[in-house]
Structures are given as C-alpha cells and as structure tokens.
Amino acid sequence: xxxxLTLRGGAARAARLGVxxxxxxxxxxxxxxxxxxxxxxxxxxxxxxxxIACHGxxxxxxxxxxxxxxxxxxxxxxxxxxxxEPNVDWLAVxxxxxxxxxxxxxxxxxxxxxxxxxxxxxxxxxxxxxxxDEWPRGELNLPRALVTEKAYPEDEVVFTTVSAVEGAGVWxxxxxxxxRLGARNQWEIAVPAxxxxxxxxxxxxxxxxxxxGIKRVLLHSLRSGTIxxxxxxxxxxxxxxxxxxxxxxxxxxxxxxxGQTLPAGAFAQLQAGLGLPFDRDRANDExxxxxxLGKSFRERRWGRVFSPMVELLGSREFAAGERTLWDALxxxxxxxxxxxxxxxxxxxxxxxxxxxxxxxxFWVYLLWDWFDGRLFEGW
Length: 379
Known about the structure:
Porin, twelve-stranded antiparallel beta barrel, 36% strand
C-alpha cells in the first residue's frame, strides 16, 4: 500500500514513493474499499490486504526478484529511519499523496480510498515493526528555539546570524553541525564568527570560540510527552579576546535540557547549566537558565507549520557585585519546504534589565534537517 512510505533520504526515497504509488493504483478495489464502506479495519488487516505484497509480512520489504523493480523498499524495522518522523507526517503523505511532502506525484492520495481511522491504524501498526524502544519518537522533536538547546538528538545544520538593533554595529554568525549517534546520542560542533565596529572607527572581524558538544538522552516517554537530556560542551579559546570575539580561555559547559509536549500543539522547553572557565583570571564561573513556551499551528491541517514561542533567558556570573541578567526573546519558527526539513526562525532579543549597557538584537536562523533529504529537495 502506497500510504506506507519512507519520508527520509532524498532521491532514493522519492523513487520508492513512485513505485509504491504505481503498485497501489493496481491494487484490487476490494482491498482498499471506499471510505465509509463497512466497519473500519484494523491496521494489521489493512496492511495484510494492501501492503504485504511490496513490504513483506515482516516490514523489511519483499525481495526485488519478486516485486520486479530495482528501487529499494523501506525497512520499517530500521528504527533509525522509522522512529524519527511524527505520525502526522506519515498521515499527510497517506492522506494527500506524495506531493504533500515533496515526493513523487505517482504516490496517490488515499483520502477517498481509506478512512482516516484506517490510515491512523495502519501507521500505528507500522510502528510495531521497530521493536527497540530506545529510540525517541519524532513527536518529541520540538521546534528549535533560537538560544535554548532542545533535548532531542538530531541531524541538523543551523546557520544563525545576530545583529545589534542599536548602538555600535555588531554582526555575529554561528554555523552548527549536529550528527546523531545511535538511538540516544548526538555530537555537534559550533563555529562562531563576527564583525564589529571599532570605537576608534573602522571595522574588525574574526572567528569566535569554537565549541564541541555531546548530548545523551536520559529519559523519553511518548505517553507523557517528555524528553530529558544531559549535554556537555567544551569551548576552545579560538577567538580573538582583544576584539571581543573570544573569552581568552577554554571552558566547560554542562547542562540539562527538558522538552515537554502540551495539549493542543503547545510545548515547553527548559535548559539549565554552568559555564566553567579553565582560567578564572580571565572569566568567571557562570550559571544560566532558559525557558521556552510555544505552540505550533499547521496550515490546512497537513501543511506548513508555524511555531510562535517566547524564550526567557537568565544568566549570572558567580562574582561579587554581579546581578542576574534577564532577556526576553519572542520569535516564530516556520517550515519552508513541503518536506518540512528546511526551517527559518526570526526573533528579537530584548534585555529586561541593565538596558543601558546591553543592546536589543535581531536574531535569524536557517535550519536544514539533512537526514530528511538534500537541501533543495522537497520544495
């Protein structure tokens, strides 16, 4: 059955969709049945009536010599593939066809062939093929805020730029590469850079302090909508301290990250940690805490996702005379591609105290979830 698709992996995945769609068109009408005809079948019944010829009884895919084509079939027992997407993405393709997520037009829409109840049940049945519950489900992959680190391990590239709205000109940039390792782990590298206006006139630029990080999911529960992770980052003194692009010392930043789904598409995220410089003559120990509250809205139920959210950011250096600094960062993340693997986020970071010495900043990022396909696929 063509509604049982892979949503990951670029051109190979698109080829699969086309093959599965063509096969679905050839299925007997009795196997699919008109929407609303008789009682809704179970997911297993729909799968065995309409899907087994291509995908096999075990979900690993029927041998190419039997199906008669060379395009690879998805392996639904592969948890690295099957666990990443939320049900809504699989349902969108099953309901509206391949173009709903930027895949082949040969993948037909099944909204008139199967009831939504049947589609949901067959997707639930598909989930049983991944027998390893170590893998967090895609429903726990919450929208990425501009500052607060999410708890979900991901394969992403993120490019962020920050500019001062007032005062001396400052532009900073950060390139982040994230790579998932197995079910619960992720490593990342962040490379910052920037340019700033000198007080004596002219501009200067350079690289900032590069950081290396490792993330480990400690707990995840689809039932409660909770994911909890520990993260450690090593910050290297690669930036120029004289031009204010670096701290002049290496540092270690351990922190905890929590994600929580809430009713009606709402979500909350928390992060709390420490900044521990190796050379305390150059920088002070610091504590930081961040909170995100937001809600996702989907265009026409299956389409583009808009996620407005607000971050509350706090930090304090552990030194005499220092005060807690507070900032608010309202923002909105928008999925750009139909495959929803390319996203943008725009926000404004506003100081809530010590405003005389701290500037309002304009933040933007572009995010590419590269596991879902190439950058220019799925539009």
